[in-house]
Amino acid sequence: MNGPDQKPRILLVEDDPDGRRSVADALAASGCEVAAVDCGNKAVELSGRQDFDAVLSDIKLPDIDGIQVLKLIRQSDQNMPVLLMTAYGAITAAVEALKAGAYDYIVKPLDLTDLQAKVSHAVENRRLRRQVVSLKKELFARPIIAQSRGMRAVLKQVETVAPTHANVLILGESGTGKELVARALHAQGKNPEGKFIAVNCGAFAESLLESELFGHEKGAFTGATQMRPGAFERAHGGSLFLDEIGLASPHVQARLLRVLEEKEVIRVGGSKTVAFETRIIAASNRGLEELTEGRLFRHDLLYRLKVVTIRIPPLRERPDDIRPLADYFMAGFCKQNGRHIESVTPDFYAAVEKYEWPGNVRELRNAIESAVVLAGSPRLTAADISLPGAGENLPRPECPPAPVALAAMERELILNALRRHKGSRTLAARELDVSVRTIQRKIKDYNLPF
């Protein structure tokens, strides 16, 4: 990849020696470095060995034509801008070139000023695309702390699997970082500039989940005032993360199976199929094998999803990660909230390392944020970290004020329900006879580790 101060490198494909020389001179005059070849096969071979910012090719070549050059080069680099030169009046060839993915076409006899401008635009487009990829990598580059053997094994799996097209199933308790691993798979995959679309299958009623995943046509149901593409379509060319897949209903599971097998969707209320090319990453905090034995999850869908399975160990099984995670969160929340922590006492670390963290990394993150925000001095001690059971030996008022007591009871009820159902908002809401939205709001209100 060329740096910002380097000359743009252009691959020129032209079999006519005089035309090749004049175009190369015009490109060199505009500040480009040119590699010129006289046939399509040489161009494809050279593009595989060297890095270019754009390709400029004649459509008519002695071996393969410019359209084939375009397709072959973009197989290995789908973001490479390819411009094609065509004879005056060959509009059909120009249209075919654009349909095949050409960045632009230039009509012969060439206007060298026009050629220079179009190549310059293509190079700038390439540069901007690279910037987008770089920024997305930074966005997805929130580090996965991996001091423990278990998490190092997870990162090794991510590194191995990411460049492939294999579907991945991520298993782990709520709060262990399943979406973080999914984003790492996307960022290190074949198309990191593609979209990463996440859908929580436990956060929607069945009909709404169908619409979210597969899309709907205008008038498909009350309120469907316009066509809306589903997550599979929106994630075309990128990755689709299906979180809490174990909570999808049998009907949605059946539709998911067909979609994965056919690689096409039919929107709700529609009949036309829409093809997509998307990497599927699913996640569950429940054992899907156990669900299949209880006939709550389809065996055939499970096999489609778990081409590769990545298991994330709970935080209590990787104590080596607790302190570096705490330090990482501490630095982030200090910067975010304008706080300054100068030192951390040993008893603070002892407290966080002793606690079992049933809510895993998410609970640790929330606890550290609270400690940083509420700290009364630039020195964090064990007294600054609020953990369940930490204050059991402290004297308590015999009769707390009624609102406080009720709030505490409500918090405990919701917390216990979430723990019983391993973080599932849907199942906890069903048990408590409230809406999922209420559970989600209370989790935020009470800063629950889920």
Secondary structure layout plus pairing:
Blueprint: E1 9-13, H1 17-29, E2 33-37, H2 40-49, E3 54-58, H3 66-76, E4 82-87, H4 91-99, E5 104-108, H5 112-139, H6 149-161, E6 168-171, H7 178-187, E7 196-200, H8 206-214, E8 215-216, E9 228-229, H9 231-234, E10 239-243, H10 250-262, E11 264-266, E12 273-275, E13 279-284, H11 288-293, H12 299-305, E14 308-311, H13 322-337, E15 343-344, H14 346-354, H15 360-374, E16 379-380, H16 402-420, H17 425-432, H18 436-445
Helix pairs in contact: 2-3, 13-15, 16-17, 17-18
Describe the structure.
The chain is α/β, with parallel strands linked by helices. The protein is 47% helix and 14% strand. The protein contains 18 helices and 16 strands. The protein has a 5-stranded parallel sheet, sandwiched between helices. It has a 5-stranded parallel sheet with strand order 7-10-13-6-14. The longest helix has 28 residues. The two termini are 42 Å apart.
